Amino acid sequence: MEREQLADFLRRRREAIRPAEVGLAGNPRRRTSGLRREEVAMLAGMSVDYVVRLEQGRSSQPSTQLLGALARALRLSDDERDHLFHLAGHQPPPADGVARLARAGLMRMLDLLGDTPALVLSDLGEVLAQNRAALLMAGDLTRFSGDRRYLVYRWFTEDAARAVHLPEDREHQARQMVADLRAVAGRRAGDPTVARLIERLQAESADFRRLWAEHEVAVRRASRKTLLNARVGPLVMDCETLITPDQRQQLLVFTPGDDETRERLDLLRVLGLEEFPTGVARPGQD
């Protein structure tokens, strides 16, 4: 670990970012054009004290999870992110492994979308990043670990994942996810991560075994869905999927399908994050 170089790199990247680039309001009284340490700490989900110690070269070796959070907070490019990992004494996440981070370009698009709910998915359905509007709509979808990181796994093994969709829509959603996983399995033939996920699903879900045996193939594209939000009621959302050229990551953008949904999304923004109930189904887990 190169503490002095790591400290210098983090400090310079923080000072180079304008608040507006990460969705923070500017203040004419700011003494610096870059981010404050407390703002980096908030965006990365860590303590201000730890950010200070990192920038002063006094910290212990940060974990790969903390480095990933810092890379997202500082909107690092892929090359900058890899450099950050090297300075901290870690190997960067593999280009096609389960520890991938959202691409820097997709992170910037999340920021630009503002009040439009959007999230970045891996091709296996792991939510890698989401903007505040998506967090309000669906809760924190990046908090899961193990097989539960994958939307398709939660769908077939947890009632709560299906409960946020209308009963009459659930068969269609299930078929869509299995068909998308079939397409991924074809593109990533021989990938042990994909093979293990399919094996676990076949062992744990009769519904998955039934749909997998039908061998339907379809990449996730545009769709309309109704999400049952615990605080404001049903949300009719049009979902547009933008896929990176290598098909490894997807940007999902949700727009209201009717005026009532638009009003309910406005209400969610007013309610904010503090009142989000615990122990309820989270919309958008599909």
UniProtKB/TrEMBL annotation:
<protein>
    <submittedName>
        <fullName>Transcriptional regulator with XRE-family HTH domain</fullName>
    </submittedName>
</protein>
<dbReference type="InterPro" id="IPR010982">
    <property type="entry name" value="Lambda_DNA-bd_dom_sf"/>
</dbReference>
<feature type="domain" description="HTH cro/C1-type">
    <location>
        <begin position="34"/>
        <end position="81"/>
    </location>
</feature>
<dbReference type="Pfam" id="PF13560">
    <property type="entry name" value="HTH_31"/>
</dbReference>
<dbReference type="InterPro" id="IPR041413">
    <property type="entry name" value="MLTR_LBD"/>
</dbReference>
<dbReference type="Pfam" id="PF17765">
    <property type="entry name" value="MLTR_LBD"/>
</dbReference>
<dbReference type="InterPro" id="IPR001387">
    <property type="entry name" value="Cro/C1-type_HTH"/>
</dbReference>
<dbReference type="GO" id="GO:0003677">
    <property type="term" value="F:DNA binding"/>
</dbReference>
